[in-house]
Amino acid sequence: MLVSLLAVAPARADDMDLSLSRLRISAGNTGCTNVRSAAQFCPDNGLFERLVSELAVAMAPAPVRPAHTGGHRGLRLAVSGNVTGIDAGATHWALGSEGSGGRESNAAAATPGDGIGQNDAPSRVLVWNRVEVEKGLPFGLSAGGFVGHGMQTSLWMLGGRLQWALFEGFYSELGRLPDVAVAASYGLSAGSDQARFAIGSAELLLSKPYVVDAGFELLPMLGLQLLFTDVESGVVDLTPVVDAVAACAPQPGTLPAAGPPAAVTCADDGDGSDLDNDVRFDDVEHMRLRTALGGRLRWDHFTVSLSLAYDLLLPELEHELPRGSASGDLRRQLSMRVALGAEL
After folding, report:
1. pLDDT tens for each residue of 234-270
2. Residue 72 belongs to a domain
3. Which of 9, 15, 82, 160 has the fewest CB atoms inside 10 Å of its own CB, making it the most exposed?
4. Are 279 and 238 in contact (CB under 8 A)?
C-alpha cells in the first residue's frame, strides 16, 4: 500500500516478526539465578520491554488529524501508511525479530555477533498500513474504526475511535480561532501468539481550513497525544529446538493442557528440566507523550495528508540491562504518515 515502497529493502514477509524465544538469559548469569537446573533459561525482560515499547509506537494511531467533524452526515474514508524509525542496531531487535533464519534458528548461545539465532540486518523502519472509516454524529461527535497491518510481520491491529469537536466552524468574527477537538482510541493486536498489544490514546487536536484556490482547501493540523501501551506475553518456549515432552516422556495423565511444569510427572529415565523453559515475560505498561504536525490538501471529495510525529516524553523503563549492552535507554522515535482519503 501507500508507503510500502519506503521500506528499506525487499525482505521476507515475516522478516521483522517477533522471535521472543531468543530473548533469554542463561542459568547462573545476572538475572537468572533462581533456577532448578543449568539447562534452564530465564526470560530477558529488559530486552522484551524495549522491543515491544518501540514496536507499539509503530502500531499506534496517528497523533494528528482534522479537528472538525464534517457534520452528522459526514463520512470519512482513508488509507494510510505510517513509517516509524526504530533502534535497529540494538540487541533487542537483533534477537527479538526473526530475520532470514526464522523463529526456530535458536542454537545454544544465541548471542549477538555469533551469527546464529539472530536477525543480522533488522529493518531501520517499521511500515504500518491502515484502513480507517469515521462517521459524523450529532453534537460535534464522530466515531470510527480501523484495521491495520505491519509490513514484514504477521501482526494486525483492530480498534475504534471517538472524537468530540469542542470548537469548530468559526469563519467570521472569531474566525481566526482554530477548530479544537479531543479524541480517544483503543486497539487490540491479532496475528501473534507470542505477545498481545493493547494500545490506547488520548489526543488534543487543532486544525484550521484555508481555501487556497477554487476547489482546493489546505488544512494545517497540530496534535498532542498521550499514548498508553499494555503488552502481555504469551507462553514462549525459550528452547524451541528441544522437544521437552519427548525428553520428559510424561507418565500418562500427568501432562495438563495448561499449568505449571512442576505438575508433570516424567518417566523414571525422563528429563523434565526443559519444561521450565516455557515462560511468560513480565507485562509492559508504558505511557508516552507525542506531538505531531501535518497538513491536508482537499480537492472536491478527495484528500491527501502528510504528518510527522515525535516523542516529547519517554516512558520510564522497569528493567535495567547489563552495562555495555547494545540495548540501552529508549530513544525518541520519529514517525511519518501519508494518507489518501475521501470525505462524503
Report:
1. 999 888 877 777 777 777 655 555 555 556 777 776 6
2. yes
3. 9
4. yes
